[in-house]
Amino acid sequence: MSGAELRKWNEVPIAGVPWKFSTEYKTGDWRSERPVIDHGKCTKCLFCYIYCPEMAIKVHWTSDGSKPEKVEVDYNFCKGCGICANVCPVKAINMELERR
Amino acid sequence: MVGVNEVKWTPTLIELARKPDYFLPGHRMCAGCAAPVIVKLTLKALPDPDNVVVVNATGCLEVASTIYPYTSWKRPWIHNAFENAAATASGVEAAFKALKAKGVWKGDLPTVVVFGGDGGTYDIGLQSLSGALERGHKLIYVLYDNEAYMNTGIQRCSSTPQYAATTTTPAGRVIPGKPEWKKPIGFIVAAHHNVYVATVNPYFWADFVKKIRAAAEYEGPAFIHAISVCPRGWRHESKLTMTISRLATETCLHPLWEFDPETREYRITDRSLYIAKHPDKKVPVEEYLKLQGRFRHLFKPVRRDHLIKEIQEKVDKEWEYLLRLAGFK
Amino acid sequence: MVAEQVEMLLNGDFAVAWAWKHVEPDVVAAFPITPQTLIVEKFSEFVANGEVRTQFVSVESEHSAISAMVGAAAAGARAATATAANGLQLMHEILYIVSSMRLPVMLGVANRAVSGPINIHCDHTDAMGQRDAGWIMIFTEDAQEAYDTTIQAFKIAENPEILLPIMVNLDGFLISHTAMNVKVFKDPKVVKDFVGETRPVPKIKLMGEEVELSLNPRNPIPVTFGPFAYYDYYFEFKRQQIEAMKKVPDVVERVNDEYYEISGRKYGNGRVVPWNVDDADIVAVVMGSAAGTMRYVARKYRERGVKIGILRVRMFRPFPWRDLQELLRGKEVVAVFDRTQDQGVMGGPLFLETLAALHYLDDRPRNVVNYVFGLGGRDFPPELVEKVFDELIRIKDGKEKPFVKKYVGVRE
Question: Taking the model in full, what pTM does it have?
């Protein structure tokens, strides 16, 4: 289940302490649909950001850092749940079939 | 006074977006699960999120966020067993107090945040929770309520709403789902008198984060009851999670209120306050029920109006009770 | 250098409380159950008088007591609690978790029979039910040893090679409520120097950084305790615990010796306490206060020329199989005494594990028999010991029908 080479008992920390952050586990391959943001319509309200359970909406700030310039989907982790498309007040997000 | 009105903070999404993530992506919660949103909002709302220790009861959140050797927690975290999150947190809280008294820990005591599911809080964990609250430990207990024992496969809990189908209360020919009403955990906790109690909804994020802030500022135990919509267990499309979450409050099945331990007052907040002042804005429960597969048997193959009516009447009764408590009648 | 000590009239429970007072654990959880209650009652007096800075958590059940200890120890604090019988059984699921998280929690157990029927008196069934939970288990013989062992317990458990929780057992009522003159250290600083002012939190390497194995929020990498481990790693964690257990016998002996330096008292080699075993033909293997009674009777038999020895097992977990092999090889008769219920087995746990150790000897003892005694506080007075010893002599002389196990003191 760890998806990597299995270590011996004396090669892992004691007390069962995990030694990798989950950011190394790309849940992006779970999805069957992917959200696509129409940046022309997007008002950077950040609703998608706050309601995303995967923390998969990345906010890019303006050069002076005062406000969001662009929001982007982190497809490494997006599971394609569709919440972002559903909550977007201006319907700027469309769920498209994932093709690989 | 303790509560959202005392919190000197006007949160914005921009401010929350600037904060780092303490709960990392790559966790294995279902697509569309509200629990990660609850964790995200809780940790981002804390005044000093670097100085926090998280205690977690066994459940969906605990299991899916710490599949060895991965962890999604960027804060110290401990999972002990199912029914003892509050007791474990009592030990953590007492330990830091002792270490500070001995001069080993310097500076502010860490905030102890406990995440417990409805399974580990309403039933098996109720004793441990009550004990911790009675002893007055300073901790924030966040109940993420998905209304069944979801991690073991959607079994009935005392938190399951009336007539919901679960795997141990299936909608059968004779018994149409769980016959009992949902246990009023918020009032049970409030009856301990020394606890700041608040119901929250991740959809209403501003109310949510302000209540967490109020909890953090209170010098005593706090209990935050969050409704945690579950696409898997409630059987709906994952994209509808936040819609259903919003409706839970708009139908008054999960009204937003808080209990102030200092003044012993109940206050209704945010969307529920709006509904209290404009009763015509209260949404009929049917709008909420018809979106969920666990209530499908109320509509298909035939509409069971008497059951839907029974739920509506009970909701109205509970809402009236809350309005009375909050001084609206 | 032996430190100055004063004599106090203390029963076993008070002795443990005084040891806690001198060690000053950071967090103590308290829940009453006879016959351990006096420990937490006495300690609560020290807390109420401000004589210790311990956080005293009056929990609402033993399950919460041990759970709070998990939280406290994980936070890096020194944690102690006490229980007995059904209280210990209520802790059962958590005991395994404590040892899996390598938390050196100290648990005082005033051994008492388990329900049903409800019985508050001494037997070892409660502790024996937990023997596979991965805890270090030591059985004491009297209040003095209860005081000494409680202090030693912290040092053993917190050793960075060990990091396992430890149970200090004392016979319910027979030790817990029986007073004797106990020598306690006059200056608590002696004890603090012995165990350290605070718990030494171990460091581990995690994601390339050195971090405290604790919930310290200031760790450069945060530590997650208690993950969900699939079948791909669970076995390896148990293997780690087994490895730590292997190091315990040496540490117990070392701490026994170090304690001797400051107190003038030692208990055998820390693991077993032999009395006239070397030249004995007949050896009785026993744990707890019954050893004292047996020694008292054995002395009289020795005067008559009977070569009888008493071997008290002090460290039951890890099982001191090497010591038993060394001391019992070639003996004529070995009688193992269990003060535990043995339902549907050839004999009690002490007997079975002794047998397993002796099996691998070339010069195995000729006769190994089991006596189950003292259940539910049934007295084991000298008269009864004499009857057993007479039987053992008959076994040695070949005048007794061979048997595996007998019950002593039950009306049958």
Answer: 0.96
